[in-house]
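Pilot study result, target chain (216 residues):
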Amino acid sequence: MTILDKKNKPKILLGDATDERMLRAARIATDTSLAKIILIGKPDEIQKAASDANVDLDGIKIWSLETCDILEELTKNYYETHKLKVPDYETARVEIMSDDLLFGALLVNHGDADGMVAGSLSTSGSIIRAALRGIGLAQGIRSLSSVFLMNFPLHESRITSHESRSLAFADCAVMPDPDAHQLADIAISTAATYKQLTGNEPIVAMLSYSTKGSAS
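Predicted structure:
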């Protein structure tokens, strides 16, 4: 799929949708056919924020917990997979109703969206918790990790191979002191994510930011 394939555009949810940056990003992504954008949150609050920021929401949908027609199905699925941590169905419903990020993660897990972007207002911790609860870890992976995908224009890089101009760096945000098993999980996850996002065959290098405690 090419990034401008209008027939198969990815459906991306945006959390923190009252943030002006998110609203402007939604407008740009929609106007450039980058993705089909759906804002998550309370419609009246999002529309007011868009009006205040002078951002036109034409062609951009808003999905809210109050109007979601599959909320019961999402709640049932969430409860069934979290019975060890969620005591009853009503508690599961309350948890979802009080967390737009969890709602978005459950929509992705249910197949109603291809991904979700958030973090302009929400903390990293709240996003990680929502992803773990709503989606979970990939099969065979025991350790959560993060990855930065950086694209280097060829004229600004010494790299001459077209396939190598995008580089993935991990883990830069979650585990400060991984053990050997966690490092292996990070390498495996990062390689898989890199290939999924770029289509290129990954080459993995293990680096250390600190040698024998040199970092304070």
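One observation from the pilot: DSSP finds seven helices and six strands in the chain. A full batch analysis is planned for the follow-on phase.
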